[in-house]
Amino acid sequence: MVDWTVEERKLILETWGKIKVKVFGPLALRWSRYFGTFGDLNSALAIMGNKKVVNHGITNMDDVNNTYVELSVLHSERLHVDPDNFRMGRGFTPDVQAAWQKFLAVVVSALGRQYY
């Protein structure tokens, strides 16, 4: 059982209420086509061992702008990804972040309960 504060519960429900599940669910599956050149992504083991996946998430924190130049060009000029997909917006405050982080930790714990 999780003890949610009134504020945490409010923040999670408000944020989730903004998500258009029927719109973004199918879009998320469509977006996966962008990773078709990554090779085998058919299992967790394949994904974890895939060098293209690993490199996709590497960040040089000392030079973020240059680290993402190629990816930015790919997103904007070839894939035409809407930049709003990367913005959190003003409503995504540290309190909302903390509440969601707690919520997701609880979800991960619940999903992992049956593993030995």
Description:
The protein has seven helices and no strands. The protein is an all-alpha fold. The chain is globular, with a radius of gyration of 18 Å.
Task: Count up the domains.
Answer: 1
Task: Specify Rg, calculated over alpha carbons.
Answer: 18 Å
Order of helices and strands: HHHHHHH
Structural category: mainly alpha
Largest sheet: none
Q: What fraction of the residues are assigned to beta strands by DSSP?
A: under 5%
In DSSP terms (H or I, runs of 4 or more residues), the helix count works out at 7
pLDDT averaged over residues: 78
| Total number of strands | 0
**Which runs of at least 5 residues are low in confidence (pLDDT < 50)?**
none
The end-to-end distance, rounded to whole angstroms, is 20 Å
Instruction: Indicate the percent of residues in helices.
Output: 55-70%
CA-based shape: globular
What attributes characterize this protein structure?
single chain; 116 residues; mainly alpha; haptoglobin binding
